[in-house]
Amino acid sequence: MTAPEDAVDLILAQWARERPDLDCSPMGVIGRITQLQREVHLAQRETFARHGLDAPSFDVLAALRRAGAPYQLTPTALMRTALVTSGAITQRLDRLEEKGLITRTRSEADGRAVVVTLTPSGRAALDAALPDHLETERRLLEALPGADRDRLADLLRRLLVALGRVPQEP
């Protein structure tokens, strides 16, 4: 039994016809990752919107929640977690602070440093959105049996590590 074809198969067939001298096989992986990224983005956007959030806000709230009590991180640690610039993290923090989901205060240990803290409202918002988010992710992956999901996760991890996407110290 052959696997059903997708839009990327058509693209690869067209390139094979038009440029048989080129190995276009990388498009098979990257093209599918790109299409999946769009599907994930749309599904997550819909899920987060039901909770009055967007993906960047969810990322910040989740990073603070994962930090454990007292749910605090520095803006620099949040930048490293989100892999964004200081300007981008500042905009995210401004929006979340306006909504009352985080606070920013001076560090007691170092008065020059700022500490971002998840408020009780922020924790409640994240805790309400998280189960829905996980269900969205499960739905996106339901076509793959567990062993295939594990294998895919391993392959993607290996690729990301090879590209230098490894954890940084906060």
**General shape:** elongated
CATH class of the domain at 52-163: Mainly Alpha
Beta-strand percent range: 5-15%
The share of residues in helices is: 55-70%
State the assembly state of the protein chains: single chain
Cα(first) to Cα(last) distance is 49 Å
Biggest β-sheet strands, sense, barrel: 3 strands, antiparallel
Rounded to an integer in angstroms, the radius of gyration calculated over CA atoms is 20 Å
Element order: H for helix, E for strand: HHHEHHEEHH
Number of helices: 7
Give me the secondary-structure category. mainly alpha
- Care to count the β-strands? 3
The CATH topology assignment of the domain at 52-163 is Arc Repressor Mutant, subunit A
User: At CATH's second level, what is the architecture of the domain at 52-163?
Assistant: Orthogonal Bundle
Report the uncertain regions. Answer: none
The CATH superfamily of the domain at 52-163 turns out to be Winged helix-like DNA-binding domain superfamily/Winged helix DNA-binding domain
Strand order of the largest sheet: 1-3-2
Average pLDDT over all residues: 93
